[in-house]
Structures are given as C-alpha cells and as structure tokens.
Design goal:
The protein has one domain. 76% of the residues lie in helices and 0% in strands. α1 packs antiparallel against α2. The longest helix has 44 residues. The two termini are 46 Å apart.
Length: 108
C-alpha cells in the first residue's frame, strides 16, 4: 500500500526550523544553567537567565501551535485535492449518470 507524503510549503518548513532551533536553544540553556553556570547564576542573573529560558520555551510552544495549524491546513488541502481527483472526474460523473439512468424511478 503506497502512501503519499504530505507536501509542506516553504513557510511550514521555516516554522519547523525555527521551532527546532528554539527547542535546542532552550535545552542548551537548561543544561548549561544546571551544570556549568550553576555557581555564576545568582540573584538578578538567575532571574534573567531563567526568564529568558521561559520566554524561549513559550515562543517554541507558540511556534509548535502555528506548525500544527499549518499542518492541518496542508492536510485539508491535500484531502480536497484527492477528493476532486477521485470524485470530480468525468469518468465518475459518467458512471453516476449511467447508474441513475439504469434505475427505474420510484412510483409514489
């Protein structure tokens, strides 16, 4: 059974790259903040560092939601194209007409 892949647009790819970069940056900040810079992060530096990490994580979440929205849009577009290709063709209309003409109308 062959499955077609969902075609992603350039903006969708860009959103995915941005989300990946944000997540890697946030992960790096978490690792560095808990290991290497643990002693240097005191007072205002601590609050500033972790607030930036929180902001990056929040932006990554919003970017993920945008990615999800674009993915749904691409899925609906591909489903519409498949429907048009399969059910809106001249062959299909001819089959429907033949099937309707071969049936006798119901008497009421």
């Amino acid at each position: 059974m062959s499955r077609e892949r969902l075609l992603l647009t350039k903006p969708h790819r860009a959103v995915r790259w941005i989300a990946a970069i944000l997540l890697v940056t946030c992960l790096g900040m978490i690792v560095l903040g808990n290991t290497v810079w643990k002693d240097q992060l005191q007072g205002p530096r601590f609050a500033l560092f972790w607030s930036w990490c929180f902001v990056l994580a929040a932006v990554a979440i919003v970017t993920g939601l945008v990615d999800l929205m674009l993915l749904g849009r691409a899925y609906r577009r591909q489903r519409r194209e498949l429907f048009r290709r399969e059910f809106m063709s001249a062959e299909f209309h001819a089959q429907v007409r033949r099937a309707r003409s071969s049936k006798s109308p119901r008497e009421e």
